[in-house]
Amino acid sequence: MHTQTYPLIVSGALFFAALPASADTWTGTTSTAWNVDTNWQDGTQPASGEAIVFDSSSTANLATTLGAAFSVSGISVVSPTATVSIANGTGGSLTLGAGGIDLSAATQNLTFTSTPTPGADQTWNVATGRALTFTLPTNTTFNLGGKNILKSGTGTLASAGANLSNGTLEIAAGSFTLNGNSSVAAGIQATATLQLDTGATFATSRNSGNITVAGNVKFNGGTWTMDGGAVGSFSGPIDVSANGGTVRYLTTSTGGITQILSGAVTGSGIFHLQNHATSHANNRYDLTGNNTAFTGTFAIDGTSGNRSVRIAAANAGGAAATWTIGAANTLQVSNVATTLGNVNVTLGGKLEYLTGGTITVPSGKSVVVDAVAPSTATTTLNSAATVNHSGTFTAGRASVVNLNTGTAWTQSGAFSLVGNGGYGATVTLNTGATFSYTGASPILLNPGASSNATLTLAGGTFTTGAPFQTTTSSTTPGTNNGILILQGGGTLKLSADLADIIAAPTGTAVKNLVQLGTGGGIIDTNSHTAILGQAITGAGGLTKAGNGTLALTGTNTYTGDTTVTGGTLSLGTATLADASKVKITTGATLALDHGTTDTVDQLFIDGVQQLSGTWGAPGSGAAHTSAVFSGTGFLSVTTAPVPYEGWTITKGLTTGTNAAKSDNPDNDGFNNLGEFAFDGNPLSGATDGRIALRNTPDGPTITFPVRKNAGAFVGDSDGLLSPLVDGVRYRVQASTDLMNWNTLVFETAPDTTGLPALSDAAGWEYRTFQIAPGNPKAFLRVKITDTP
Asked: Which residues form the signal peptide (predicted)?
């Protein structure tokens, strides 16, 4: 027994610390056993409380075994000739005192194949490049004895198969690696606490075995890395101090491995969640704990791999926390009802609200999708979930927000699109998605310099009781515009009266643009009254739906059709496209309040094309009037309907009741097609006398009305056949026996003697057909069809 002095390196500084006055140095002269006196430099095995030293004198039998119970003040490894290992052996055990384990000046590593028992709070100091390793049997419990263990030095502490329990292990520097494999499980039991200080790393790794962390993990600036090919269970509480912490997932497994962090996250620091996993899209980690007490920041900021993190439980959203989603990273909210705090999607990050979820953002919180300058990376939010958003929602620089089928978004906080620095903001409401804005402030569509802020209703429904407004938009289409686009049947639905749907800020005439894209859009006034003073542009059509009144007062240039299915659409200017159609449903009103004439191509009422000419309200003086119109203006219709359909309108037939070609409302033997072909009256069974059979010196003749411009009839084996004209084909046949209708017949000059005038000389003309003379008896008939 003697006193020696050894160098001790702590945090890069060189110190010299004397071990306790009594120390034993291993020589291993005789065997591997500690309980053999001749294996020790002083000739006696260690007494209780002595320190153990492995130095340059330690040259033999370094794979040691205890063979008895020892209680020592500490172990120091300095310069033995090889790695030192310590095993219990038969009847062996080891208790470590306050001296702990010192590898601060070691040139070799130290390995335990059995667990020592800490007898006091202590430090395990491992120098750079050195390793303190515990290689233990399957499911070994490493009882820390209720003590506090401080791992210092930048070297490695490694354990395979150990389950830490009953105490605290603080990693002040370097790394602590906890490994498992197909036959070895490892973990941190609920009675243990692991603290990771700044610069320290906790690494869990396994193949097909499990890592179970049920104890408390405290982040004080350190990092936890996960790797391996089996699902881990990380259920213990996680505390993140002001110094923050990092969790990093590294697997390259092709099996799709999900790490579950079900422990509650608390604290106020920045918690970095980094998914660097590769090879499979589902190599990620899910947060399933109750994180409501966490007031810090969840930073999703991996720099490689999948970079996706998923909130997969109701309380995992951290309502009091801030979420920051960095470049190429994705935060997913799975099929759960959860509450988020502030969310910042930046630098090309992505936020995904997955199908079936319900996401709540409380008042006072915000969701901002914004690639902070100078970044140009697109930032994205995809939603297919129910969202209850009481906080502010901002789509900023280079943002793309897609609200997809399944999205039911209620926004009571302020909503804005804000471009910046040449990079626009885009929000698209797709088919099957709804967005209800219940906030009091206007919806801001503010572009940046040389960029647009675009809200597109692409089949979805956007409900608002507030107007759209801009403070920066240009009035000239191109760039630097705030734009509202309705396309694919997208619907703007009102929940309040609006003095102007597109409002201008006080003291300026600058307004957002309104465009109709492919498939057109719908404005549903929903029993409210609103004005749309901004000119509507684009190639799509506009449908006015719902009760209430929409007044268009701008000089519109959209070229699509205009449809009114409910309420009143008031036109303050005569600017409907000349080549467009107007479609009105009975019960709805098109108010021609411009007082002039507006030209369109076609007019449909209840789906039936109407006659050409001027149309207006009853008493307006228009050629045609209908109760679907009001106001003093006229609608000039250029194109008449298909002749048969126009004829049914003129004759007072009703579509769906008695206007079909096969209908015979007067029961006179002629269906409507026959009445149309022969200029008859479908509502009167009286004979009109327009078909005449005569026996002339030159032979029998038949005279009847034929649609104008039918052209020449052509002879064939069945008589004479007309071309298809206005949907009708005429066939004239002759017979001498009423059986064979192939007697020669030819057309002659019209004989209109004694026949009544036709109802419309522009629509029909009389034509006469004759059988050649010399037949003792002859019969004539006309057949009509609507097929080619």
From this structure: 1-23
- How do residues 107-159 score in pLDDT, each as one tens digit? 999 999 999 999 999 999 999 999 999 988 767 788 999 999 999 999 999 98
In a shared domain, residues 610 and 577:
yes
Q: Does the N-terminal peptide bond of residue 118 adopt cis geometry, omega within 30 degrees of 0?
A: no
Least confident of 171-185, 196-210, 707-721, 762-776: 171-185
pLDDT digits (tens, 9 = 90+) for 58-70: 999 999 999 999 9
Q: Map tokens 């969840």 to a residue.
A: 298
Say how far apart CA 609 and CA 643 lie, in whole Å: 10
How many folded domains does the chain comprise?
3
Counting residues of the chain whose pLDDT is more than 90, the rounded percentage is 75
Same domain, 746 and 682: no
pLDDT tens-place string over residues 442-481: 999 998 877 899 999 999 999 999 999 998 766 677 778 8
Q: Are 176 and 201 in contact (CB under 8 A)?
A: yes
Query: What 3-state DSSP class applies to 110?
Result: strand
Sign of CA dihedral 346, 348, 349, 351: positive
Q: Do 727 and 768 fall within a single domain?
A: yes
- Residues 630 and 654 both lie in one domain: no
536 three-state secondary structure: strand
673 within 8 A of 784, measured Cβ to Cβ: yes
The residue type found at 355 is T
pLDDT the model gives residue 259: 83
Does residue 375 fall inside a structural domain? no
Stretch among 476-480, 564-568, 583-587 having the lowest mean pLDDT: 476-480
Evaluate whether 240 touches 219 at the Cβ level (below 8 Å): yes
**In the structure encoding, which two tokens stand for residue 157, read together?**
């502490």
Tell me, yes or no, whether 694 and 781 share the same domain.
Answer: yes
From residue 34, alpha-carbon distances to 77, 126, 294, 384, 422 in Å are 16, 23, 50, 67, 75
**Residues with Cβ < 8 Å from 613, sequence gap 6 or more?**
622, 623, 624, 636, 637
- Answer yes or no: is 70 within a domain: no
Q: What is the pTM of this model?
A: 0.81
Show the tokens assigned to 728: 């009708």
Q: Tell me the two tokens of residue 768.
A: 């006469």
pLDDT at 20 over 70: no
State the residue range of the domain holding 658.
642-687
- One domain, residues 579 and 664: no
548-552 sheet: strands from edge to edge:
528-532, 548-552, 568-571, 589-592, 629-630
Cα-based angle 185, 187, 192 (whole degrees, multiple of 5)? 150
Boundary (domain end) residue, out of 573, 608, 641:
641
Domain finish residue from 624, 657, 687: 687
In a domain, 577, yes or no: yes
